[in-house]
Write a structure and sequence with these properties.
The complex is a heterodimer of chains A (336) and B (268). Chain A is α+β, with helices and mostly antiparallel strands and 336 residues long. In chain A, strands 6-7-8-3-9-10 form a six-stranded mixed sheet, with helices on both faces. A five-stranded antiparallel sheet of chain A has the order 13-17-14-15-16. A four-stranded antiparallel sheet of chain A has the order 2-1-4-5, with helices on one face. In chain A, a hairpin with a 2-residue loop joins strand 11 and strand 12. The longest helix of chain A has 18 residues. Chain A is elongated. In chain B, 80% of the residues lie in helices and 0% in strands. Chain B is globular and about 65 Å long. Chain B is built from 13 helices and no strands. Chain B has 268 residues and is mostly helical. Classes of the chains: A alpha+beta (336), B mainly alpha (268). At the A-B interface, strand 6, helix 2 and helix 4 of A face helix 9 and helix 10 of B.
Chain lengths: 336, 268
């Protein structure tokens, strides 16, 4: 368990962390999600000891490490730009932590070979970082961080510098690795898809504060406020409420729409809107709409519904909200 | 940019001609004059007691100057790049001072400081001779060579950034271990070049050193001073050529040695 209590960090007039408290359970894979400047990287670096807090404490597995330097915190850290030791081979990079700890040579060699096999770099022992691709370098950095058996693994936008395909591959791989190794892992990302994909817990940060912490489903379906809702997936403004585009149903008949809407409590009502564009997205169809008020929004409906409706651009249709994923900030039990 | 064949050729000729006239011809003339009377004559000329003493003194000054500049140069570069302290801008400017100040001025200021009548003159009066002794020559050489290591290491430190060092610290390395295993190997090329420049300048320094040297042949003459005194005072033109060739030879050996050492180290 990592516990951060009342962490505060200012850079001049900019507040990076504003009284942040967070518990990260042992064995979890937690994502710190937020836009740039939200303080997520600062929080991670404070846990690592690479950043000193102005006030507040950090404990790792019950040990107060607030005043400990990084080398005595029992952590592994992976940087966005790999931070590979350029003058060392892959083997020496991975062995670094063990060499520093003066472990027996045979033990080190065995451990390094094991790790390189796990990260899929078997046979690359004698290469230099410059001879590896970005994805390989990051896997080497992961092996290097894992070699010292850290209590917690901290990853700072680890896939941010990689191209889209490698990024998705590597995060699947990280998820599987975590399921095998079970080390408490904290991942910083600004990519909500990445957070939803790999993490079992997500903490959403904004302007140096934590907006909400929870599992991906809760955050997606019951966001504590507009910010969380907007950050975790796309949203549509419907009659003054935020609604997920796939929670909007379209009806040809206004009476039917009103009747169905009456069954949904706290709904924004039925909105008449003009179809501006129909965009097929594969499995789903996105319908760009313009309400009478002039407000534009998009609905995402299945291919079959779209076929039944036979939407044409320029015609008027009736939109209503269906699901329960609207903001619950009026529900104090879920607000943070 | 596309350059026509003619332009390219003439550019090449101009560049090579420039180098030839300004570098190759003078060096060639010295080498030719040195070895014209034969190798034995050369060896005789550089193994007189005065020449041997000058060689020893030059090497001694280099041997003191280089380690001092390496230690303080790397420390200063680290402070300039990584440090966040008041007066960093001032330090930046001060480091370049030896480039800006004429070596003669350095010599004069050293005399005013360490000479018998200077601020630290008590030391001189107590019998520890700085000016007109070896310590003064070393001080003068250190002063004029001070910026080389700093200015060669600084941009490399900027370029490598701090992430590798931070990674090392998260892996359990303390400050010293990080410095020896990560920082030093990363800056070794800049450091090598800084050392080569320091050696070359330390061997060749004339203005600052002649001011604080008593200039006795066989006692307090460096190789560079020997070249000068043989040519000007003794009208021993050949002796000056021979000493100059020896001087060039040492610089060349240092350059080769550093390159070889570095290649060996990076091969490991």
């Amino acid at each position: 368990m990592i516990t951060v209590t009342s962490a505060r960090k200012d850079y001049g007039s900019f507040t990076a962390l504003d009284d942040v408290s967070l518990d990260i359970p042992s064995g979890s894979l937690t994502a710190l999600l937020g836009p740039s400047g939200s303080g997520k990287s600062t929080l991670l670096r404070a846990i690592a000891g690479l950043e000193e807090l102005d006030s507040g404490t950090v404990t790792i597995e019950g040990r107060d490490v607030t005043d400990e330097p990084p080398q005595r915190r029992g952590i592994g850290f992976v940087f966005q730009h790999y931070a590979a030791f350029k003058h060392m081979t892959v083997r020496d990079n991975v062995a670094f932590g063990l060499t520093i700890r003066k472990r027996p040579k045979a033990e080190t060699a065995k451990k390094v070979d094991e790790l390189l096999e796990i990260v899929g770099l078997d046979g690359f022992q004698h290469r230099y970082p410059a001879q590896l691709s970005g994805g390989q370098r990051q896997r080497m950095a992961l092996a290097r961080a894992l070699a010292v058996d850290p209590q917690v693994l901290l990853l700072d936008e680890p896939f941010g510098a990689l191209d889209a395909k490698v990024r998705t591959d590597l995060r699947q791989w990280l998820r599987r690795l975590h399921d095998e190794v079970h080390v408490t892992t904290v991942l910083v990302t600004h990519d909500q898809e990445e957070a939803l994909d790999v993490a079992d817990r997500i903490a959403v940060l904004n302007k140096g504060r934590i907006e909400q912490v929870g599992d991906p489903v809760t955050l997606y379906e019951r966001p504590a406020n507009d910010f969380v809702m907007g950050f975790l997936g796309s949203v549509a403004h419907l009659g003054g409420q935020l609604v997920r585009p796939h929670d909007i149903a379209l009806e040809r008949d206004r009476a039917t729409a009103l009747a169905l809407d009456a069954k949904v409590p706290d709904s924004p009502g039925v909105i008449d809107a003009v179809v501006e564009r129909v965009v097929p997205l594969g499995f789903e169809v996105r319908v760009d709409l313009r309400a009478d008020s002039g407000e534009r929004f998009a609905a995402q409906i299945t291919r079959r519904d779209a076929a039944e409706l036979q939407l044409r651009e320029g015609e008027t249709i009736h939109a209503r909200a269906v699901g329960r994923s609207s903001v619950v900030d009026h529900d104090p039990a879920l607000a943070i | 940019m596309r350059v026509s064949r003619g332009t390219r050729l003439s550019l090449r000729v101009v560049a090579l001609g420039y180098l030839f006239v300004l570098l190759a011809v003078p060096i060639g003339v010295i080498l030719w004059r040195t070895f014209e009377p034969g190798l034995s004559e050369f060896i005789a000329s550089i193994s007189t007691p005065a020449a041997r003493s000058a060689l020893n003194l030059s090497l001694l000054i280099v041997a003191i100057t280089v380690p001092v500049n390496v230690v303080f140069g790397v420390a200063t570069a680290l402070a300039l790049v990584r440090g966040r302290f008041r007066g960093r801008g001032l330090l930046q400017a001060v480091v370049d001072l030896p480039f800006a100040v004429s070596p003669i001025v350095v010599g004069v200021s050293l005399i005013m400081l360490w000479g018998a009548g200077g601020w630290f003159g008590a030391l001189d009066r107590a019998g520890f001779q700085v000016i007109f002794g070896i310590p003064g020559m070393v001080l003068a050489t250190i002063f004029v060579t001070l910026p080389f290591v700093v200015r060669e290491v600084e941009p490399v430190l900027h370029e490598i950034g701090q992430e590798q060092e931070q990674a090392a610290s998260t892996l359990g390395a303390n400050g010293w271990q990080t410095f020896w295993r990560i920082t030093l190997p990363a800056i070794r090329w800049g450091l090598t070049y800084g050392v080569v420049l320091t050696v070359a300048r330390a061997l060749g320094e004339f203005g600052a050193v002649i001011m604080v040297s008593s200039g006795f042949p066989g006692v307090s003459q460096t190789l560079t001073l020997l070249v000068h005194s043989r040519y000007i005072d003794d009208h021993n033109t050949y002796g000056a050529y021979a000493a100059a060739t020896l001087l060039m030879g040492i610089a060349l050996v240092v350059l080769l040695l550093m390159t070889l050492l570095d290649r060996k180290r990076s091969d490991r």
